[in-house]
Amino acid sequence: MTDRFRVENLTKDYGPVVAVDGVDLSIEPGVVHCLAGPNGSGKSTLLGVLLGLVRPTEGTVVRPASDRVGASFQEPAFYDDLTVRENLDVFRALAGDPAFEWVQEVIGVFNLSRVLHRRAAELSGGYSKQLDLALALLNEPDFLLLDEPLADLDDVTRESLVAFLERYAAEGNAVVVSSHRIDAFAPVLDRLTVMYEGEIVLDGRREEIDGTETIRRVYREAIAENDEER
């Protein structure tokens, strides 16, 4: 039994392409953990392994005892032929019928009230992303793993989501966000892990990195340094 995700010496390759290379990492409760790096650095593959959707080539994966895990990937996943309300109802039932108040809070965070009666297939890219993120939260997950959660969101919704994730982690939940853009998360993250070509090139807590502007600078320098070396 454990209260966190943990991987040790994790490697995943697709033939000659090594997507994740010898990674050691833990995901702890009560933390906004930003998994950053350029496109193709292995972030999505690592999340897939953590969730049991991708089988590692080598290494150890330890998952938490809690089965309350929520996830959202880059491609939204819901029932196109159902309305937004019907999707929420279906996923709410699958999540064990969470409290009505919680569902209403999630609807509010993503401003879904104005599109509740619209078919999901008719949603804009932004609202499709917002619905997908809302569905990931319905079971009040102890561990929330989000792959590029800010893609397609407008500025107001981005700010609302980032503020919500900060509060959610402060309540003792683990929040993992993967992103190739760090600016939005720099003010709220508790831990930064930078990946480059499948490897972790930087891993540190906020107090070790020392402040929002330093976080941005350290991230840019880590990527630039590895660009030069490779």
From TrEMBL:
Protein name: ABC-type multidrug transport system, ATPase component
InterPro entries: AAA+_ATPase, ABC_transporter-like_ATP-bd, ABC_Transporter_VariousFunc, P-loop_NTPase
UniProt keyword Transport present: yes
Coiled coil: none
Provenance organism: Halapricum desulfuricans
Single Gene Ontology MF annotation: ATP binding
Gene: ccmA7
Keyword field: ATP-binding, Nucleotide-binding, Transport
SUPFAM superfamilies: P-loop containing nucleoside triphosphate hydrolases
